């Protein structure tokens, strides 16, 4: 299994002078995510997806001997699809902005991998997010409730023939380690209270 970390976004909702993934929560958030994947011992390789939107993040990753894969930085989905076309393996994709991520939750998510499914997205319920004081723009109705994407997916890239009309599977894991991502300044402020 390969760990892919998405680190090429613009982070425009944060309205920062610096790149979002360089924000510190003990250490830069992107390194926290990478270390969580490394420490889980679940991956043969970890690759960070970067773009021209995140030159300082890419530099930090390279200084820490983390393999990067450059994309045009058009958007999350487009950049991910470009990377997946070059991989013939099972992949765990994670957003680079999950400051509470740790190796235990990664190990738990990996146990949910089902080789019959091409794409499985990890969700949290709206009810759970609300208890944390977090809002999300990316919701979906699943299992008779409103849920939100965490930015984590399990993908069997060997089985992808076309990204059109691909069946997406879902698993709900209400856990703050994957529910909490940095999209706004309020999220970052809230992080200091966790």
Description of the molecule:
By secondary structure, the chain is α/β, with parallel strands linked by helices. It is 29% helix and 28% strand. It has helices at 29-40, 55-63, 76-84, 103-110, 126-132, 176-179, 185-191; strands at residues 2-6, 24-25, 27-28, 45-51, 67-71, 90-95, 119-125, 139-142, 145-156, 168-172. Strand 2 (24-25) and strand 3 form a beta hairpin. It is globular. The model has no long low-confidence stretch (mean pLDDT 86).
Mean of all residue-level pLDDT scores: 86
Total helices: the number is 7
Q: How many distinct domains? A: 1
- By CATH reckoning, the class would read Alpha Beta
Biggest sheet, open or closed, and with what strands and sense?
Answer: 8 strands, mixed
Tell me the β content. 25-35%
N→C terminal distance: 31 Å
Question: What keywords describe this structure?
Answer:
single chain; alpha/beta; 28% strand; 7 helices; 194 residues; Spore Coat Polysaccharide Biosynthesis Protein SpsA, Chain A; two-stranded antiparallel ribbon
């Amino acid at each position: 299994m390969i760990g892919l970390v998405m680190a090429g976004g613009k982070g425009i909702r944060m309205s920062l002078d610096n790149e979002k993934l360089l924000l510190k929560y003990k250490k830069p958030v992107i390194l926290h995510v990478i270390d969580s994947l490394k420490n889980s011992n679940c991956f043969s390789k970890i690759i960070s997806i970067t773009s021209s939107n995140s030159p300082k993040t890419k530099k930090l990753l390279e200084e820490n001997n983390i393999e990067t894969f450059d994309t045009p930085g058009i958007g999350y989905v487009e950049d991910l699809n470009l990377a997946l076309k070059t991989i013939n393996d099972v992949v765990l994709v994670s957003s680079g902005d999950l400051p509470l991520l740790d190796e235990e939750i990664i190990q738990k998510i990996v146990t949910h991998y089902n080789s019959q499914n091409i794409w499985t997205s990890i969700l949290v319920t709206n009810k759970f997010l609300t208890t944390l004081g977090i809002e999300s723009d990316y919701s979906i109705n699943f299992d008779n409730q409103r849920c939100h994407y965490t930015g984590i997916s399990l993908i069997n890239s060997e089985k992808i023939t076309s990204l059109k009309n691909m069946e997406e599977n879902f698993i709900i894991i209400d856990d703050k380690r994957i529910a909490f991502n940095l999209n706004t300044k309020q999220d970052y402020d809230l992080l200091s209270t966790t």
